[in-house]
TrEMBL record:
InterPro entries: DUF4174. It holds the Pfam family DUF4174. It comes from Xaviernesmea rhizosphaerae. Residues 23-141 form the DUF4174 domain. This is DUF4174 domain-containing protein. Keywords: Signal.
Length: 144
């Protein structure tokens, strides 16, 4: 299920440059929130908008927001380096997250590269922020 995600995150196996995947680029620097678009895109757009409306909270938690459609993936929010140099493979992400194309899905990936939460329903941003704030690495960040 998460075989290729582990490959990307840990750098074991396939070359991420050849595969076009680059989640590994975020490891130990950023948390990643992936939103997979539903067929109409309405649910995913509303979910993305709910997070984008809280840009300060995203920035404070080192969160990169990625939108994935059937054939494309793009960074919606994140540092300049993520917005300009990251090329994600939509098919690989869908496979990694065990998400069906055209079906809404959201996944939170920690800085350590592990999947922390998945849902096939929209999630309130405050619940994601709360979950992140309970993570040991985030608690350490808040102390410093």
């Amino acid at each position: 299920m998460f075989k290729s995600l582990v490959t990307e995150v840990l750098g074991v196996g396939a070359d991420p440059v050849e595969s076009g995947a680059s989640l590994r680029d975020f490891e130990w620097k950023y948390r990643v929130l992936v939103i997979v678009q539903d067929k109409t895109g309405i649910e995913a757009a509303a979910q993305a908008d709910s997070f984008m409306a809280q840009a300060d909270a995203l920035r404070e938690r080192d969160l990169v927001l990625i939108s994935v459609a059937e054939t494309s993936a793009r960074v919606l929010f994140g540092p300049t380096e993520a917005l300009t140099t990251t090329h994600l493979d939509a098919g690989a992400l869908l496979s990694d997250l065990d998400a069906a194309p055209g079906t809404f899905h959201i996944a939170l990936i920690g800085k350590d590269g592990t999947v922390k939460l998945t849902s096939d329903r929209p999630v309130d941003p405050s619940s994601i922020f709360s979950r992140i704030d309970q993570m040991p690495m985030r608690k350490d960040e808040m102390r410093h």
